[in-house]
Amino acid sequence: MRRFVTAFPGRRDYYQVPVALAEAGLLERFVTDVYLTPALKSILAVVPEGIRKKLEFRHTSGVADDRVSCLWGTMARERIRHRCGCSRVRTYAQTDREYSLEAARLADRANADLFLYTSYAWEAFNRKSHHTPRKVMFQYHPHLHCIERVLSADLRHYPYLRASFAKDTLADLPDGLKVRERDAWRHADSVLCASSFTLRSLIEAGIDARRCRVVPYGISALDRPPGPPPESFAVLFVGTGCQRKGLHHLLQAWSNASLPKASKLTLVCRSIEPELECRAHECKGVTLLRHASVAVLDRLFEQSTLFAMPSLIEGFGQVYLEALVRGCPVLGTPNTGLPDIGAEPDGVFCCTPGNIEELTANLESLSVLLPGNSDIRHSARNCAARFSWAGFRRGIIQSVNSLG
């Protein structure tokens, strides 16, 4: 079987796709942006500590260094365009093309196949080649038409989130760039999805379900026992403060709910829409953190009674597993990977997307059920244990082999 070229910037999915291909002897090349190459390792001692830590984060022992190619200039161009005030959505759409084109070039040179995420597939899948590569695509978010449909319906009730809506629906992109996200699946031989919801969005767009497989993400197990269950009702939200994540619904439900007096809601948002930030500050018992270290986040998960992120639309929602593995039950919606993860006996609770009354009722009932409940926290950890990264990697290879 021919090997695969894969490509993406950053540490998407903690490098699990190239690691999976490497473990199976199927990795021809991994194309990325900044990576801790042997040359960089040799000068780490003289690099400032902040930069050194970031570089150490950009590496995986599961991929041989000689299998990695770096497009160093893409990050520099992105930073320059950001500083100049250029649209981030347009910038990423343009630089994403470079990973796709480089993947196609390397696959052509090595007579290799292509395993590409949605954003980096269009050019490679449409490029003429001297051989016929097998084209496998990982759809890591719901189809664009589904995103537009769901968020448009919500926007009619919350027009102040129009800027957030434009980012998530790529509304400001010209059709020539938007087509990359919208139609890449049409040129794939097979498509993998992280959730059943994402798969349904593709079926809605017209794909034949027989070309698809669902491979849920995984999580690394913790090497320490859980702490005691919190006795008060402490709710945690971690994510971008935007329309898609349903933070406006959570804040409204929190304000409406009749909760125990000491209840608190902590929001960890590296970025948040201005209107949502104002509403968060107006809500009683709500604390907004714009930055939180890994250690602080870890402590917040363990000290929270419930993790709540009622997303309107989500490709999977890795943060749900991050909460569950620490024994923190989760509240979300079926428009995520939660139905693939578990149900209420597992500490997984769902409500209808955008239904404030239902979300309010869930907060009220969980404020009674969860405080001091060690059994449900144990069930949450057991639920997360069923989703390992090793299992995700096996699922990737099994799917690649079975889809033909």
Task: State mean pLDDT (0 to 100 scale).
Answer: 94
Shape: globular
What amount of the residues lies in strands?
A: 5-15%
Instruction: Please give the count of helices.
Output: 18
Number of strands: 13
Largest sheet: 7 strands, parallel
Catalogue the unreliable spans. none
- How much helical structure, as a percent, in the residues? 40-55%
The assigned structural class equals: alpha/beta
- Rg over CA atoms: 22 Å
Spatial order of the strands forming the largest sheet: 3-2-1-4-5-6-7
**First-last Cα distance:** 11 Å
Keyword list:
globular; alpha/beta; 6-stranded parallel β-sheet; 18 helices; 7-stranded parallel β-sheet; 13 strands; 404 residues
